[in-house]
Amino acid sequence: MTMQEIDKALFAAAEAVRAKAYAPYSKFQVGAAILADDGQIYAGCNVENAAYPVGNCAEPSAIAAMLAGGGKRIRRVYVTGPGTAPVTPCGGCRQRIREFADPDVEIISHGVDGEPLVQTLEQLLPHSFGPDHLKK
Ligand SMILES: O=c1ccn([C@H]2C[C@H](O)[C@@H](CO)O2)c(=O)[nH]1
């Protein structure tokens, strides 16, 4: 598969799961799709809650799907949401992606009425703290 075909598949997976997002409070449905080290695509949506702070973003849902499906490392991420502005992962999600991705992994942020924005994890989360820091 070419990179273009991979991104097309990631976009389609993010959009398919975004339609199922549970976002009755913000009405801001988000989908995230991960290409994992096993070659599979794993997707997840945001899941809000009446107790607002315990809702979760689409990215951790996709990470959970990856782990449940047998994937171990993140090779590429595609995030879709409403509007024209690129839907970039929030700070907490950048750190969650960091746990499973190398610094050069590209994250594509796409407000579906606008253009996709491609950035590396290093760009989104410079000088990050990660698992290596805990190794003696
Ligand atoms: O990258 C993002 C940004 C926002 N949201 C969700 C959280 C919340 O449910 C809604 C509005 O912030 O969008 C995500 O899932 N991922």
Record the SSE blueprint.
Elements: H1 3-18, E1 31-36, E2 41-45, H2 58-69, E3 74-81, H3 91-98, E4 101-111, E5 117-120, H4 121-124
Parallel strand pairs: 3-4
Antiparallel strand pairs: 1-2, 1-3, 4-5
Bound molecules: 2'-deoxyuridine.
Note down, in words, how this protein is organized:
With 136 residues, this protein is of the alpha+beta class. It has one domain (3-126): 3-Layer(aba) Sandwich (Cytidine Deaminase, domain 2). It has helices at 3-18, 58-69, 91-98, 121-124; strands at 31-36, 41-45, 74-81, 101-111, 117-120. It has a five-stranded mixed sheet with strand order 2-1-3-4-5. Helix 3 links the parallel strand 3 and strand 4. GO terms for molecular function: cytidine deaminase activity. Belongs to the cytidine and deoxycytidylate deaminase family.
Strand content: 25-35%
The strand line-up of the biggest sheet is 2-1-3-4-5
Instruction: Return the CATH class.
Output: Alpha Beta
Gross CATH architecture: 3-Layer(aba) Sandwich
Characterize the quaternary organization of these chains: single chain
Helix content, binned percent: 25-40%
The CATH topology name reads: Cytidine Deaminase, domain 2
Query: Could you report the average pLDDT, rounded to the nearest whole number?
Result: 98
| Pattern of helices and strands | HEEHEHEEH
Bulk shape: globular
Q: Bound small molecules, which ones?
A: 2'-deoxyuridine
Number of domains: 1
Distance between the termini: 40 Å
CATH homologous superfamily annotation: Cytidine Deaminase, domain 2
The major beta sheet can be summarized as: 5 strands, mixed
Keywords: Hydrolase, Metal-binding, Zinc
Pfam families: dCMP_cyt_deam_1 (PF00383)
Family: Belongs to the cytidine and deoxycytidylate deaminase family.
GO molecular function: cytidine deaminase activity
